[in-house]
Amino acid sequence: MTGLQAFLSEQYTAEFQAFRTVLDAVPTEAFATATLGHSPAWHALHIAEWVRLTVLQDRTPNYHHLGWEDKPWVGPMGTEAAPVSETADKAAILAHLDDVGAKAVAYLAAASDTEMQGMTFSPSAPTGERPRLAALGMHVRHIAYHRGQVALGRKEQA
């Protein structure tokens, strides 16, 4: 593992742990309740999907929580059932997030320098792709953003 791969796997590990801390603090009975637009369950599945798509580059067409469902590019990505739905219990959703997170961290730790280079799918970029390292950096911050959304939603409920 090079310094870059170690850095990325450490950053993703830290952010997944912080996100889990916030999600774990949500009472089970409130986990599927939307605040500020989405439920904590949705936020967990949203992050699992984006990490699966951007870090693991998984193109299995079973995405249902990307948050861009009104965009034409999403349609073909959601033709199969989601691995876990928003109506699943909290433990199942968190187990799915943990699984995706562990796979992402393992991938980043073992990635070659070549795998860290080049372009990758990024629908928000003007060309639909962006440099791989920029995408990885954006998505670790994306986890932090949704961690904040869940924390803010908890304050809203209080």
Automatic annotation (TrEMBL):
It holds the Pfam family DinB_2. SUPFAM superfamilies: DinB/YfiT-like putative metalloenzymes. Gene3D superfamilies: dinb family like domain (1.20.120.450). Signal peptide: none annotated. Residues 11-150 form the DinB-like domain. This is DinB-like domain-containing protein.
